[in-house]
Design brief:
Blueprint (H helix, E strand, L loop, with lengths): L11 E14 L2 E14 L3 E5 L6 H9 L6 E6 L4 H6 L3 E4 L11 H12 L5 H14 L15 H14 L4 E5 L7 H18 L2 E6 L2 H7 L2 E6 L4 E7 L14 H17 L7
Parallel strand pairs: 3-7, 3-8, 5-6, 6-7
Antiparallel strand pairs: 1-2, 1-4, 8-9
Helix pairs in contact: 3-4, 3-5, 4-5, 7-8
The protein binds adenosine-5'-triphosphate.
The site of adenosine-5'-triphosphate has 12 residues, from strand 1 and helix 1.
Length: 272
């Protein structure tokens, strides 16, 4: 079925059914992910949260086509994730910005385009890279090396680099994990602005309850041993969200509910 202007596409942008991942070490097979089912709507912002080591990054790798599941099926825009990745429909951002230290911000943003967009000439690549740096508020820092940028600025460059290929889905694994608390909050507000402007589907792995509640429309809560999704929590906080959002009674209540779910999923242990 094709969606038209009259019939909006309501199919999930990403979905997973019966996904399991086993890792074998010294001949011993260990089930890391168990029977994962997920539906992620197009244009939504969703988070995966769960205790350390429960398999969040492994699930993100499966969704990104970096790891084939042992069992189950995954689709990104109706194709297998590996194919979606080859078609440059998936952008990735990791905890470390992984920028080339000898290249300035502009050249780092150009890097993937130079490899993947042979249809664009140098001027076009330059123009698009500047556009992306402007989108992330770094147009004045285009000539700076990564060592001359703060951690938050480096992460903005890596987001610009991922967006330069115009992916449909942005997948982020603890992108602000290495930043201090205030920079982290600023980056969350910045990320929501980017999401509002680009309307990409964003999938975020995080340990932070506050980050998940502030950013997401839906939070998938994972439990451990083996990792599974124990609940999908809709976040009904109004958009746009800003510093005042943290003070809303609904914010505190939702964060409390998420904390309780994480504690439950973690057994007797503490939440994130
Ligand atoms: N390539 C691998 N080979 C064997 N075991 C692995 C591999 N990758 C991950 N694991 C194991 O799978 C489990 C889940 O790891 P994963 O990194 O997905 O968890 P996580 O929830 O993202 O953790 P954290 O929050 O600490 O980053 C861990 O026990 C980890 O040791």
């Amino acid at each position: 079925m094709n969606a038209t202007m009259d019939t909006p596409d309501t199919r999930p942008h990403l979905w997973a059914r019966g996904v399991a991942v086993d890792f074998t070490h010294d001949g011993v097979r260990n089930r890391v992910l168990h029977n994962i089912a997920l539906d992620i709507p197009r244009g939504s912002f969703v988070s995966l949260i769960g205790p350390s080591g429960c398999g969040k990054s492994t699930l993100l790798k499966v969704l990104a086509g970096l790891l084939a599941p042992t069992e189950g099926e995954v689709r990104v825009a109706d194709v297998e994730p590996g194919e979606a990745a080859r078609q440059q429909r998936i952008g990735l951002v990791f905890q470390e910005a992984t920028l080339m230290p000898w290249k300035n911000a502009l050249d780092n943003v150009k890097l993937l385009m130079e490899i993947a967009r042979r249809d664009l000439n140098n001027d076009q690549i330059n123009e698009r890279a500047m556009e992306m740096l402007t989108l992330v508020g770094l147009e004045k820092s285009a000539n700076k090396l990564p060592s001359q940028l703060s951690g938050g600025m480096r992460q903005r460059v890596s987001i610009a680099r991922a967006l330069a290929l115009d992916p449909e889905v942005l997948m982020m694994d603890e992108p602000f994990g290495a930043l201090d608390a205030i920079t982290r909050e600023e980056m969350c507000e910045f990320l929501l602005e980017i999401w509002a402007r680009t309307r990409k589907t964003i999938v975020l792995v995080t340990h932070s309850i506050e980050e998940a509640v502030f950013l997401s429309q839906e939070v998938h809560v994972m439990a451990t041993n083996p990792a599974r999704i124990i609940e999908t929590l809709p976040i009904a906080l109004p958009l746009p969200r800003c510093e005042a959002t943290y003070a809303l009674p609904d914010f505190g209540m939702t964060a409390g509910r998420l904390r309780a779910l994480l504690k439950h999923g973690h057994g007797a242990g503490a939440a994130a």
